[in-house]
Amino acid sequence: MSEKSGSTTWAMVFVIAMFLQVVFAFAGSAESPTKAAVEFSKAYYRLDPDMADRICEDLLTADEVDVVEQFIYAKTEEARELGFDVSWMKQKLYHIETETLSVDNTTAKIHLTGIVRKEINPVFTWVASIFRIGDTHHVDHEIDLINDNGIWKVCGTIGDLSRS
Q1: Rounded to an integer, what distance in angstroms lies between the CA atom of residue 150 and that of residue 54?
Q2: Per-residue DSSP letters for 33-101?
Q3: Nearest alpha carbon to residue 34 among 54, 49, 18, 4
Q4: What per-residue confidence (pLDDT) applies to 146?
Q5: Single pTM value for the model
């Protein structure tokens, strides 16, 4: 095999790899009920206000109250009563598995399971998972979603996301 054909082969492999990278990037960013359920659940356990982006309008402002703000405030107060900052209440959701129970053009039901662990800081979570220290809790949820103008949003009993 000549040096020139070897270089051509490597160039073709590189071009194909770059093409596949772009294809996989677009495939990973596609909107789906599963993606919405996972994004919402991660934000929920992290106490991230961005969870509001994945909640349907009917639930977002129940009785003129911002439910996300109310939820984070309640967790902040719970932490304060324990003598901690709100960061003590944050958890990381990992080992996530999902199953689509039902889906059509407007609604979906996703079964989500995983494990949550305190996320005081990312290094703690990483070290704790490596050495298997710290409390972990299994989660098991059925999440109802609606398609709101092409964006899947959680629209069910949000406060009912309890640990099994």
Answers
A1: 12
A2: HHHHHHHHHHHHHHT-GGGGGGB-HHHHEETTEEHHHHHHHHHHHHHHHTT--GGGG-EEEEEEEEEEE
A3: 54
A4: 95
A5: 0.75
User: pLDDT tier at 120 (50, 70, 90 boundaries)?
Assistant: confident
pLDDT in the model for residue 160: 47
Residue 143 burial by Cβ neighbours in a 10 Å radius (0-12, 13-18, 19+): buried
Measure the CA angle with vertex 100, ends 98 and 106; round to 5°.
130
DSSP 8-state assignment for residue 107: E
Rounded to whole angstroms, how far apart are CA atoms 11 and 16?
A: 9
Q: Which two tokens stand for residue 39?
A: 């994004």
Q: Which residues contact 120 (CB under 8 A, 6 or more apart)?
A: 87, 88, 90
- Exposure letters 59-86 (e unless 16+ CB within 10 A, then b): bbeeeeeebbeebbeeebeebeeeeeee
Residue tagged 């932490």 (tokens): 79
Give me the pLDDT at residue 113, please.
96
How far is it, in rounded angstroms, from Cα 89 to Cα 30?
A: 31
Mean of pLDDT over the chain: 84
What's the pLDDT score for residue 147?
95
